[in-house]
Structures
1.
Amino acid sequence: MSKDFYSVLKERRSYYEINKDVQVSDERIKEIVEFAVKHTPSAFNSQTARLVVLTGKSHDELWNITTDTLRKVVGDRDFTGTQQKMDAFKSGYGTVLFFEDEAGVKSLQKQFPSYADNFPTWSNQASGMHQLVIWAALESEGLGASLQHYNPLIDEEVKKEWNIPSNWKLIAQMPFGNPTAKPGEKEFQPIENRVKFYS
């Protein structure tokens, strides 16, 4: 990484203004995603994370699908704000789709029935860790990203378009690209209200 760990976490923000003019190679992006999937922890070493990276026409098509889907939901109401969001995400270079393999989760539930109720929660926690690792790694390369959740509205079309296995559950979408504007100031709640130490 070109930045230290603290700086990466501190500077990782939601970038909504991005474009396709990235200086990071596809090979490096692939390396980042594969490294994250291999080394991010999961409960019982379940390794149920499944990721799809879309760039080029596939990235654009994702946001076309999302736009068309949302138009049907919004109906006759004003679509201006939503269209602006869709255009902003589509302006980026790529999108990482985060899935969880539900077949793997169900298999663990059968193997360890005492913990069955916990495995879906642990699956989501592991997905969250994958999202942070990749988000921070993209930040370390000078790329801006944000995390979106248009699932389950787009699930069916996404699976159809990219031949995604039916047992993969879509969790989140992370559009990324070259940041063209800085994010706003971030406010923090008092840390003493959020962390306690005892000895």
Note: The first strand starts at residue 18 and ends at 19.
2.
Amino acid sequence: MSIRKQPDGKWLLDFYPEGKPKGKPSKRIRKTFSTKGEALAYQNHILENIHVKPWLNGKEDRRSLRDLVGQWFDEHGLTLDDGEKRKGAMLFACESMGEPLAHEFDATMFSLYRKKRLSGEIIRTSRVQQVSPRTMNLELAYFRAVFNELKRLGHWKSDNPLAGVRPFKSEEAELAYLENEEITRLLDECLKSRNESVYWVACLCLATGARWDEAESVTTKQIKNLKVSYFKTKGNRNRTVPISKAFCDALPKPERPGRYFKSCYSAFRKAVERADLNLPNGQLSHVLRHTFASHFMMKGGNILVLQRILGHTDIKMTMRYAHFAPDHLEEATRLNPLGEIYA
């Protein structure tokens, strides 16, 4: 067995776990690591598990991790809205980990891969040099789901290899929303756009809490009886939100049945720039949805009603807006140590 430092500073692990072959084929492992410690840890892991050979239908289970991902996608993943995205992320991970067999994949292997991804040693595209802890938490959830689902379907007999891996603790993202003056400024800039749809799509998002793509693609079948219905949404829940008669009457009606609006996302981006709105990364059009939810709660709206309007499957998502309620933690102003002095 051999661990050698390479000219590029990395360490090459090159050995035969079952001893050097004498006439018959034997598995050889060649992998590079950033440090000698990582190489030794991986070598010890292989040697400790050398006699663990899972069996499938009376034969040694030689399925690769890639095979399991493919089987999961064919029998379950293709039904998910983000199934292709999940599959792509996991296949990239399989390649980055050296195309391991399914029974070789464990917490140690994923942990090393995760460490390299976070440090920027492994990149998926030339545009992104590092990934966030949240991205790695998603990949952890993807792989866990694969083994859980295949176990339910009877295709995996062992325990979930990542059951004990904890996700990283990540900071709660800032939820920006627009004040009344900012809303007016933004809508004024939308009106100046040559694409007339951008103003009305923005208004529909603000009036119903819709995501941009939901509002932009709304059709004549979806707006009836002063209600807007959204189908096949992100949470796989259909939902209907009422609108005022004045707003419904003001909406420009298409000449024939079909879509109300043209594609106008790029026009909205330019309107945001002209309005000089300082928004967090990744919340360009989503700020409209946050604005609806925030103002809904500030005006005394019910959190459970808001959950139904937004279509959240988990109340925890909606609870992010609870602190906007007028009486939220109001006791803090009366019960703090200075309450009597500055009453």
Note: The first strand starts at residue 2 and ends at 5.
